[in-house]
Design brief:
single chain; about 50% helix; about 15% strand; five-stranded antiparallel beta sheet; 13 helices; about 300 residues; Arc Repressor Mutant, subunit A; Jelly Rolls; three-stranded antiparallel beta sheet; alpha+beta
Length: about 300
């Protein structure tokens, strides 16, 4: 049974350009990145954060099976583990930037990174549109980081991280995200992120909602109210969605049988797994696999 492949920075062909950053940071013009990494032709995941800023060109970017239009000013912010692929025009350009949590936390608190709204993968969109009047400002920060990366002046790592933090702050200011969730207090947002982290860590165990509430030191009623207010969903909905998301990833990114995928997600009844998948996606697992793979090929 194949595991879902997750790329590290060292998997990229042009890695020789970034040895001075170990395997923890990378930035490059998008057109050059694409030319040197032709293997990016199927959905793939990463163990690092990604910022993808488009300055010209067009196309489609699929992130965890949701499609986003690509145009000048599009900016994508991906968290570790998210699966994506794209279909981009020949004149596409911009910047692509990778960083690991270890690189960020050399100077900053990692928890601060996780509270940024665009890294709430189940709550907010990983895509934002930079207004035309703001494109130059955002582009200049990427250029500054790229300049430090290429020239390696004294303390360039420190300057890169400072500019990276400034870039993330500017993007947080410009980000609109989920309007419903944006009305929550910071404590509630932190609780939502805690729930998301717990679900990511334990979704295959099929824990009861009461167990999640207990770990979070809140009541089941409080947890239900929080999810309803922020997302108009129940905690059970979030658990099912996370399981089905992983099933989708395995269906598209591995050759495993339906029964093997169900077993890997701790579903002992294949029929129940197929019924649940169809209920949440309107397709059977096999139908979903065929449709997605045909889209990737085309």
């Amino acid at each position: 049974m194949k595991d879902l492949p997750v790329l590290t920075i060292s998997n990229f062909e042009d890695y020789n350009h970034c040895h001075h950053c170990g395997n923890s940071f990378y930035i490059r013009n998008l057109d050059k990145h694409l030319k040197d990494n032709l293997f990016l032709d199927r959905p793939h995941g990463h163990d690092f954060f990604i910022l993808l800023f488009i300055t010209s060109g067009s196309g489609m970017h699929s992130i965890d099976f949701k499609n986003y239009h690509v145009k000048a000013g599009s900016l994508f912010l991906l968290s570790p583990g998210q699966v994506h692929h794209w279909n981009l025009s020949s004149d596409i350009n911009g910047y692509i930037l990778f960083f690991t949590k270890e690189y960020f936390q050399l100077d900053f608190n990692y928890n601060k990174l996780l509270t940024l709204p665009f890294f709430y993968t189940h709550i907010n969109s990983p895509c934002m549109e930079i207004k035309e009047e703001d494109i130059e400002q955002v582009s200049n920060i990427f250029k500054k980081i790229d300049d430090e990366y290429l020239n390696k002046r004294k303390l360039f790592h420190d300057v890169i991280r400072l500019n990276l933090k400034m870039l993330l702050i500017e993007l947080e200011r410009k980000y609109t995200g989920n309007q419903q969730a944006s009305g929550l207090m910071q404590y509630q947002m932190n609780q939502l992120h805690k729930l998301e982290t717990l679900i990511d860590a334990h979704y295959k165990e099929h824990k009861q909602i009461s167990e999640y509430a207990s770990i979070m030191n809140i009541s089941i009623k409080q947890l239900n109210t929080l999810c309803k207010k922020a997302l108009n969903k129940t905690p059970g909905d979030l658990l099912q969605e996370r399981l089905i998301l992983e099933a989708k990833r395995l269906l598209v990114y591995s050759d495993n049988s339906i029964s093997s995928i169900a077993y890997s997600l701790n579903y002992t009844d294949n029929s129940y797994f197929i019924r649940l998948f169809r209920k949440l996606t309107t397709m059977t697992p096999e139908q979903f696999r065929i449709v997605q793979l045909s889209e990737c090929i085309s």
